[in-house]
Design brief:
Strands 1, 2, 3, 4, 5 and 6 form a six-stranded parallel β-sheet that branches. By secondary structure, the chain is of the alpha/beta class. The protein starts with 6 loop residues before the first strand and ends with a helix. The chain contains seven helices and six strands, in the order E-H-E-H-H-E-H-E-H-E-E-H-H. The protein has one domain: Rossmann fold (3-Layer(aba) Sandwich). The radius of gyration is 16 Å and the shape is globular. The structure holds flavin mononucleotide. Flavin mononucleotide binds next to helix 1 and strand 4.
Length: 205
């Protein structure tokens, strides 16, 4: 099977077009050039995505979410993707509220289509203002979402990308992360493993 049939969705969970946006787009560019796969990108700037209301409309009706905001676009992209790369800025030692909200809203997606995320691979990239500002806890929280939704969490593995991509922006946005050579190594190692496993899994379908 050719890897070009694969589709990776990258998501930036930052409300800005800054460090996380830059890193996720670089990761997708790397995947596209190296593996000739299709990439899609979703970001939060200028978007309106409401909190989950826990109204249980999705559970009762199995018709998706009652709220018709910018999640409609993400739902479609998540269903299409074979693999997902979730990028987040580190906020208070963990993932951003934006990405957490997207995760919560996926309850409706899975209620409507239990196979929407099942057996797909996912990985995380966490971008902190500090070198050790909570990137690993942010990544573990992304992994929890993947496990809860029957996805397969991956990282780039030992020697640099233990839990996924860990990047340091020094609070300088895209300019800050550009200088983080080690951070980018962790990102590319993670993308390599994400694609490797996505190809393996596609062969079993
Ligand atoms: C509300 C808030 C909380 C933050 N908390 C942390 C933190 O706990 N650890 C850290 O390393 N950086 C923290 N930062 C800094 C951001 O993670 C950092 O600037 C990051 O690069 C922002 O990503 P962006 O440029 O993609 O928006 C925080 C920033 C904000 C706005």
């Amino acid at each position: 099977m050719r890897s070009s049939e694969l589709r990776i969705l990258g998501i930036s969970g930052s409300p800005r077009k800054a460090a996380t946006d830059f890193v996720v787009r670089k990761a997708l560019e790397y995947a596209k050039n190296k593996y000739k796969i299709k990439t899609d990108y979703f970001h939060f700037y200028g978007k309106k995505i409401n909190f989950c209301l826990h109204c249980d409309y999705c559970i009762r009706t199995k018709k998706g979410c009652i709220q018709k905001d910018d999640m409609v676009e993400v739902y479609a992209e998540l269903e299409e993707a074979d693999a997902m790369l979730f990028g987040t800025p580190v906020y208070n030692g963990t993932l951003s509220g934006q990405l957490k909200t997207l995760f919560d809203r996926c309850r409706a997606l899975v209620a409507k289509n239990p196979k929407a995320l099942k057996n797909k691979v996912g990985a995380g990239i966490a971008v902190g203002g500090d070198r050790l500002g909570g990137q690993e806890l942010a990544l573990l929280t992304i992994h929890s979402f993947l496990l809860i939704n029957k996805m397969i969490p991956v990282s780039g593995g030992a020697l640099g990308a233990n839990l996924g991509g860990t990047v340091w922006s020094k609070d300088l946005g895209a300019k800050g992360v550009e200088e983080d050579v080690e951070g980018f190594k962790s990102v590319y190692k993670t993308v390599d493993r994400l694609v490797e496993l996505a190809i393996l899994l596609r062969k079993t379908r």
